[in-house]
Amino acid sequence: MNRFNDRYSELLYHLFYEDNWCSLNELSKKTGYSKSTLWRDLMHANTTLPPEWKIEKNEIQGVRLIKPKNGTIEELWFLLKSENTYFQTLELILFNKGVTINNITRHVHISRSTVYRQLEKIEEVVKSAGVQLSSSPYKIIGDEKKIRRFIMQYVEYMSGNLNDFITSFDLKDFQETVLKLLKEHKTSLHMGAIQRLAIILHISNIRISHNCFVTIPKGVIAENEHSKAFEISKKLFGFMEKAPTREKQIQEIFFFSLYLLSEEMSLNRTQELRYIRSKLNSDSGKPLGDFLRNLSKEIGLDVSQDDIFMYEFAQTLRGINFDLKLKTDTRINNILQFVPYFKENPLFGIIEEIGKNITSELPINFENIEILEMFMLVQASILRKKNQMVIETALVCRSYVEKDYIREVLKHHFGNQLNIYVMDFSDIDSLFRKNGFDLLITTDLGQLINIEHIPIYKVSSFPTPSEIKEIKMFTRKNFIDRYGLNPEIIYPFEDGID
Asked: How far, in Å, CA of 439 to CA of 496, rounded?
């Protein structure tokens, strides 16, 4: 769906990310578009931006995006997409039984020739989702499960307000009922699961009202009809659109239960981790164990020792296996629209390449959404390791006032990352007797300290931003060198540090 507004999205993403002046040359290199094309896009984008958003232009400095307080890139994308006539046309098609050219021209306020051009592009997007676009009237046809998945992707891509979208039942009542049933059945769900379940249930209700129903093999139903998920789903019958026959209603209830089942979470993480690690040590788990070992080797960190990573990694694989086994697609994530901006990161390519080796041994497949999830999990693991790292730091000052102030400034910027030992100039000899120090920070003007075996960073009595930035650059380099990390795979967490 990104292809409907990919140029504008990419341009605004880079301006938002930089949060500063950018030259057209920089933007051209990052986006791959010519300066003349970018200039036209900038002029057009500025006329369509919502209130409080603005693109400023300067002949010398270039362009920059002015955003409101607390403005997010997703918020901006949603506002622009809601004004995009491609999405307005697609929405008409998705949420109606069938629309004509006249329906589209009347509701979207575009010419017939524009509608035909849009339909050609929409047909390409629809085909990539494994379904088709019929003509006269225009509607989505094909495998019902894939159609609902496509609608789900659209809803998440648009990232709108759930309260505005869900109209077939009371959202607050649904949430409270689900929480009550989960407690009764001693079941827990992943974060955000209730919201995702509400979306898929509303989509099902729309499709049922259009007389479109899912078909689940009887064997699959027989295998799972006694699950907690199915029992809970049956008790949510009051929120569901009524099907014309009991058999169709059972199919619809079971379809919802599959999504509920995919969201179930273990109540005991320790037991779950023990099971995950024992599984990886078995013959059947060897391909996944190899995946983790190869991934750890490439990034320089043993991710298998990170409990949080291992648990989330297992949940992602569980979702993939679940979909393969039950012939459905419960993977739902609104991060898919960020794929174009991270595909060039070496880590994305590393995960994709290592993942190919699994597919030859296991019935599993890493698509863009799974690769991006892995990318986020690995980056989080790297950050956790970085946040746990302690740099033994000697602080040598000229007075107790200077010492107290600079120590608190350093704590403000680095937290517990710097383990600070305050020293007098008379204690300098201890730096030669102890080999545990990683860094020396001092206000010495260069006459008293003559040490070469550890890095020295000099700061003013009132440390300046540039002095603090130099120390930040050291901590980043120290982290990379300590673990032998490939710096190109690390997302730039600190502003202005390469």
From this structure: 22
